Amino acid sequence: MDFDLINSSTENALSRAKPGKPRAGRSYDNNVPWLLNTIGGRPTVVALVGLPARGKTLISQKLCRYLTWTKITSRVFHLSEYRKKLASDFPGYEETKPMWAAETELRAKCLELCFHDVKDYLQDPEHGGEIAIYDAANSTRAWRQQWVDFCGANGYDLFFIETITDDKSLIQLYLMGIEDTHPDYAGLTHAEAVDRFEFQIKDYSKSYETMDPQVERNLCFLKIFDAGHRFTVHNMSGYLQSKLVYYLMNIRLPTRDIYLTRHGESMNNVSGKVGGDAHLSPRGIQFANALADHLNGLCIPDIQVWTSHLIRSMQTAGRVNAPVLCWNALKEIDVGIFDGMTYEEIEDKYPLEFERRNADKYHYRYPDGESYDDLVTRLEPVMMEIERTGNLVIICHQAVMRCILAYFLADADTIFDDLPHIEVPLHTLYKLTPLAYSCKVEEITFNVGAVSTQNSTRHLTPAHMPLAC
């Protein structure tokens, strides 16, 4: 992987918008998202750049998911969705007129709507966002200048991400399932969608202007070549842009499979106790053997197995023929003073704590222990490693597995409400295949019984979550 960092003069950086009205005359503004208060920053617009089938939508969706999961409020604005609202038959075109030219008038109308929505989102006094991500080609300097002008007028920072792909195998990978995941090609066969997409690629190539550090020296941008084989960073500025670059330099764009399961049934599961470091029960050992037989039979190339340091997790991975990496960060949520107790005992001895937990499971922190919010923070480096790793098996615990499933499957607007209620039964394996707009979920069950540990008034199964397909 090659990395170029270009340090250019930033005195007149157009991408760092002209100073606007201060958000408040105080050191802390309750109407500004927490992160912007913390770092004294301004809202940021991230605009994708690139020809069709270069992974722009995949990058924008992954970036939004990561930022939201790390509690940075973000939203993706897809040009294709605005086009569908205004011209449901797009991408129809005239043979005598290039598509990019025929689209110019339509695109201007779409941008007007998008500018309005982005401004509303970033300036919402109650739920103001921190980052707006614009997913479109932005293939000419004139089109990019429209975003420079918009952000300058509204006091937003602007960061471009250009994805350049010459590897034909990657382009074919990005086109997989395009008829099912891209709104412009809904209802078409795969062959029809690919034909139309290839026409778009040729048509946009005629007018495409790559981002040039000499011509666009005042802009801030990251260029990604062939899904991360090489990077160019130009005029990077501030905490948020640094966080974006760090994440994007670590993600793995090609398709891979992630297998998720909890450890086998433990002796504490049988007795209903929370926490602890118990061994597997006889049925848990039976599941560990069945899981190993299943995974070993798949012969998955370059597979890795991750577990926690807890005995039940390591025992479950014992017979899998693959390298095993133990993560302390993958251990179960710390239940503090309730370690070794049953929920019935907790309710009897600590009724107020029991009620507080039921009222807000995500933010509730066990006395001397952790909350789900703490757990998400603890898992951030793990998620970064998941993104940069190929085929993977993760054998973890109920709360940890809920966090990981929420990262891939939950809707950004409800992720923290949904997370503590995801149903993850023992002795069930989930195969996740991340896609551009969604995540394919396959549930694999084993004929091994186990106790139920679901202790929630809601039941949200992974296969029925918003981004599951």
What does this structure look like?
The protein is an alpha/beta fold and 469 residues long. Strand 12 and strand 13 form a beta hairpin. It has helices at residues 34-39, 56-69, 79-86, 99-123, 141-154, 168-174, 178-181, 190-205, 238-248, 267-271, 282-298, 311-316, 343-349, 351-359, 372-388, 398-409, 415-418, and strands spanning 2-6, 44-49, 74-78, 131-135, 157-164, 221-225, 230-234, 258-262, 304-308, 324-327, 392-396, 428-434, 439-445. The strands form two sheets. The protein has a seven-stranded mixed β-sheet, sandwiched between helices.
Regions with little confidence, pLDDT below 50 for 5+ residues: 7-34
- Which band does the percent of strand residues land in? 15-25%
Q: Measured on Cα atoms, how large is the radius of gyration?
A: 24 Å
* Rounded mean pLDDT score: 85
Summing up helix and strand content along with how strands pair, one would put the structural category as alpha/beta
In whole angstroms, the N-to-C terminal distance is 33 Å
| Shape summary | globular
- Helix-residue proportion: 25-40%
Task: Let me know the number of strands.
Answer: 13
Number of helices: 17
Q: What's the SSE pattern?
A: EHEHEHHEHEHHHEEHEHHEHEHHHEHHEE
Sequence of strands across the biggest β-sheet:
1-7-6-5-2-4-3
Largest sheet: 7 strands, mixed
Tell me briefly what this model is:
This protein has 17 helices and 13 strands. With 469 residues, the protein is an alpha/beta fold. Helix 12 links the parallel strand 9 and strand 10.
